[in-house]
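Q: What would this complex look like in 3D?
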Amino acid sequence: MAEVVSVMTESPAGGRARAARTVLGQVVLPGEELLLPEQEDEGGPGSAGERPLRLNAEARSQVRVVCGPGLRRCGDRLLVTKCGRLRHKEPGSGGGVYWVDSQQKRYVPVKGDHVIGIVTAKSGDIFKVDVGGSEPASLSYLAFEGATKRNRPNVQVGDLIYGQFVVANKDMEPEMVCIDSCGRANGMGVIGQDGLLFKVTLGLIRKLLAPDCEIIQEVGKLYPLEIVFGMNGRVWVKAKTIQQTLILANILEACEHMTADQRKQIFSRLAES
Amino acid sequence: MKETPLSNCERRFLLRAIEEKKRLDGRQTYDYRNIKISFGTDYGCCIVELGKTRVLGQVSCELVSPKLNRATEGILFFNLELSQMAAPAFEPGRQSDLLVKLNRLLERCLRNSKCIDTESLCVVAGEKVWQIRVDLHLLNHDGNIIDAASIAAIVALCHFRRPDVSVQGDEVTLYTPEERDPVPLSIHHMPICVSFAFFRQGTYLLVDPNEREERVMDGLLVIAVNKHREICTIQSSGGIMLLKDQVLRCSKIAGVKVAEITELIQKALENDQKVRKEGGKFGFAESIANQRITAFKMEKAPIDTSDIEEKAEEIIAEAEPPPEVVSKPVLWTAGTAQIGEGVENSWGDIEDSEKEDEDEGGSDEAIILDSMKMDTGVEVSGTGSQDAPIVLSDSEEEEMIILEPDKNPKKIRTQTISAKTEKIPSKKQLKKRKKKRAAMLKLT
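A: Here is my prediction, written as structure tokens for the whole assembly.
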């Protein structure tokens, strides 16, 4: 116990904090503090604690750093709150976005995320939708394309909904909609009655939704399919036959712990059969 | 926290898949998921994994006074707990219907089948008996808890050892494991539950349903059988009508499955016994496979090994030939010789008096000798020194290496003369070559 305390007290005192730039792509642990690039230029870790907050000082125009998931601002440093790999993206000039790529199963609603939910109850003019978070989200019957007070959407309990969060914060019930800002469905709404829903880890979903994901392209070559990814770790697949749907689901689940070579091997074997 | 609801589309898909004789995980109708049994460091502790369902079993014992109506029988106690860790839907501290049902089924399966000889648990009739307590914890829930729990319970009971007890007159002595080996329980047979899930009013049947299949099923039939195909318990739930030959067929399947599982259990127990006896590593920590998502990896640097032998030969060929060595040992006094360069030996005079002690201190010296050999060996190969390194190996008498560290640590070696002194030089030369070569290889 004493050891843990000593380590904890040591890091804010300086000396232990690492520069964020040097640990990119490496594993960081909760409680660790990271220095931003501008601080490391000025006198190193020791003096960084005494400097005033630089983020909103005059330096703001030059460097603008965004804390992504797994990071929190702690004074003028970044505090790691999740265990995972540190990532960074540079939008043009300056600080850019830092976030931690972590592995988890439990979803926490985030505004703007597209998710797959299951309708659990109809009460008055709202539906309760289970999205895998700590609380069910609410969905108004008017939040569908073309829905009016007269023209109600046909949603039954147990149906799958693909929608987007408009309200998601830790103090309020999350709220979903199935239309975009122009009032169009844009792919959202009730998902068909067939097909298979299964759960994967959130890390895998992010991997699959990445713009240059090879897995999806390779899967697409196997069979014609319909697929929906929810950021809450739910995936809905539908292929022509039950057998094909099952194969696709199992492949996607297995992809998480496969290297690119192993995956290629499996895909080529499947393409032959 | 509420259970994740099952969507209509999942339900429909599962039922259609079952009609086509397909299952989500690619199993056949009568297939079990993979069963893995691992044991803890203590006796009577095990984890059983049935696919992703995991149950921890722990057996403990206590000396208590027996029940009044059964004065000569030990007491068996079973307790299954569904913690929130297994699934968020399980509420802590509340006896859910499912939990009560599972606990009663377990008791019926294990206590009422009289698989454990309770009379052997009696120490003093009417006064002291052993109470055996089996605690089962569900660590992860992916369907078919009862099968996993019954396997875990029987495995933990088979693995358990209770302290030995002796009764002399009125005196009861309890021995610690150090004094006397703990004794295993006497187990007559191993009843194991096998679950059958029925769909579409009993039209379709699946063995070992997983969590999603359990949610879709219409009815469940649990049969507890031992490997002699004796039915210990049978329970049907869910309110479906089963035909006589359906039940008969299920009992036959159960017999086959239980025979396989029993064999697996026995193999696991034997394995654990063997590892413990050999003093190898055992316990949960050893049985957990390393599944890392991220890990610090050493990048592998490609090394060209195609012509490594030729290169080594080349280097050896180009190197200077080892200098000639003085091949004759110099006799200083009786019992002491010097080979190669070095300073004068100062031990000659005291040799005689030392000799008497040599027999007694022989073992100690051997140890010193070993460590010295190692030290000097490293030095020689590292520096490639000119001196001949002698490895004293096969003299019949006591051997000794004497070093004088302050003067010239590397080079002085003295050896008590053996009958075969003459042979040493040639051997020594050979050894030296080898050493030299090794040193060369190291340097490359």
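A: To summarize the key features: Chain A touches chain B at residues 27, 84-85, 103, 118, 120, 130, 132, 134, 136, 156, 158-160, 191-197, 203, 236, 242-243, 245-246, 249-250, 257 (CB under 8 Å). The first helix of chain A runs from residue 2 to 10.
Q: Very helpful, thank you.
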